[in-house]
Amino acid sequence: MKRFASIFFPLWVVCIAYGCNGSQSPSAITDTSAVKSDSSSAKLDSSSGSTAGFKLGVQMWTFRMFSFSDALDKVDSSGIKNIEAFIGQKLGGDMQGSYGLDMSKETRDKLKNLLQKKGIRIVAMGVIVPKNKQEWIKTFELARDLGLSYITAEPIKTQWDIVDSLAGVYGIPVAIHDHPKPNMYWSPDSVLAAIQGHSHIGSCADVGHWARNGLNPVDCLKKLQGHIIGVHLKDIVKFGDTHAADTVVSRGVVDFPAVLAELKRQNFKGMLSIEHESNWYHNLPDVIFTRNYYDSLVQKLQ
User: Fold this and answer.
1) Global pTM exceeds 0.70
2) CA 285 to chain centre
């Protein structure tokens, strides 16, 4: 997700700030060797670790041009049963308002019923940056009510202790997401600094943004071993360019066979959320392609 917005910050403003990109032809891809040269020739290691804990999902930002209800139909059509919600998406259907902290009990009940009918679960939500402790409490209350497994966030540095304490009280960990520079969490080192001494804080590993930051995603995963709670699956057309456009997973610079092999080695147990920030109005086929590609890689790792 290319936005490090406060919960109440307008999403379209953040999108402009980070340069949301439209559809881009795979022919525009450049500098692919920067990431793939180190590991693409290596055989996938199926002798250690396990993929049993892998869970494929969709970050709903992928379908941000649509209401939550319509986006859920698209997720259902893709055959994926797990999602990561984001604050501010219009609910649609027979639900008023947007997905967020101030949804009424009636709206939450309608949302739960819709999810149940589709057989889809909200596993996480984000990326959020609550302004204060009260917003964090409301966030955890919503997460608990909807049965979320974790919250994806980029917490203000002075709030690390508060976040860790609340995460422990509610039993819901917080996964720190990495946005491109100059975001404070652009490097695994800064995420590790936040994790230090905070056992309920971990990482949401956005492999595409790491590539934008000029970092090898596999090296980053290794640095964060034991702390990875969730993953964002995205691919980009140019390594080391913080404004590089998204492309369909497997057609850009990120070495996904190596990424999944490393997650398997670490016995990662969590959700890998497809987040495709391109071809906004017609990207369901791209999500289905990514699902099939992911399934093929996991099968090879068995």
Assistant:
1) yes
2) 19
